[in-house]
Amino acid sequence: MKIIILIFFFILPVAFAELQVGFYGSTCPKAESIVQQVVQNRFNRDKSITAALLRMHFHDCFVRGCDASILIDSTKNNTSEKNTTANATVRGYDLIDEVKESLEATCPSTVSCADIITLATRDAVALSGGSKYVVPTGRHDGLVSNSNEVDLPGPSTPVPLASQIFAKKGITTEEMVTLLGAHTVGVAHCNFFSNRLGRVPDPSMDPALEAKLAKLCNSTLSDDPAAFLDQKTPFLVDNQFYKQVLVKRGILQIDQQLALDTTTKDFVSGFASNNNKFQKSFANAMIKMGKIEVLVGDEGEIRKNCRVFN
Fold first, then answer.
1. Which of 32, 227, 241, 295 has the most CB within a 10 Å radius?
2. Hey, is 247 helix, strand or coil?
3. Cα–Cα distance between 259 and 269 in angstroms, integer?
């Protein structure tokens, strides 16, 4: 299981209008069911795939918009987004390949890789107990993937700065808090939070949790130890994440600061006390994020292989 640090996201109103629910209804009627089946099969074997897909989706949309640029393999002439430190532990590429192969066999050059990421993430969230939300499709795949463009906020980014970064992508502070709730699934490796441990531990962390994490990170049983971001229900998309940061049990610094910063703490409390509110807000935020700077119409292309440009 790899680190799942989800990082998130001017949205183009014209592009919004061109995405449609059921976009492939006539050109590839089985498109969404094919995606769903592949995701279901993987989920049956590996429930951590939900966290992996959420992270991939966020990291893709945050750089050049939701255009599947994160899927491109590097070449001798170009280092792609995939091969950066921020994306080094992103996984799930093989699942996207499997979906694409099935779709190409059924309806060649029709369904974009960008739509596959969005649909697969949606389906994985539902399988993990989250809302079964509907997403519009019709995205095209990007023609650029450059490692120099990857500049993602990290686990220690201050909340005010994170809010500014998300605002540039049209994401409100409340939506940011909602999207960070994706940390209800997945893990973080020790190097992402070890600065909060030690002889002068972070006072915003519960001492019992600090002791547990310090023991984990000092263990010799693993070369790369990791902790669940949600200590209670790590494979469920629910509001438990918010409940835990309210009692100083957030693993990542940015997660814990959500419960302390004056601009975000009320949102955290609201989600912690109402799972239905969180589920609805999370679905809406995911739908909105999936529309960031999308390519439609004559823009971009429909890749035959998600790893390479046509």
1. 241
2. coil
3. 8
Is 189 catalytic? The answer is no
- The dihedral region occupied by 300, where left means phi > 0, alpha psi between -120 and 50, and beta the remainder, is left
Characterize 163-194 residue by residue with b for buried, 16 or more Cβ atoms within 10 angstroms of its Cβ, and e for exposed: bebbeebbbebbbbbbbbbbbbbbbbbbebbe
Catalytic residue among 57, 59, 140, 189, which?
59
Q: Which residues pair with 301 in a beta bridge?
A: 141
- Rounded to two decimals, the pTM is 0.92
Structure tokens at 256: 């814990």
User: In 3-state terms, the chain is what percent helix, strand and coil (to 5)?
Assistant: 50, 5, 45
Q: If the chain, 310 residues long, is cut into consecutive pieces of 10 residues, what is the mean pLDDT of each piece?
A: 42 55 96 98 97 97 96 95 92 98 97 98 98 96 96 91 93 97 94 86 90 88 87 96 97 96 98 98 97 95 97
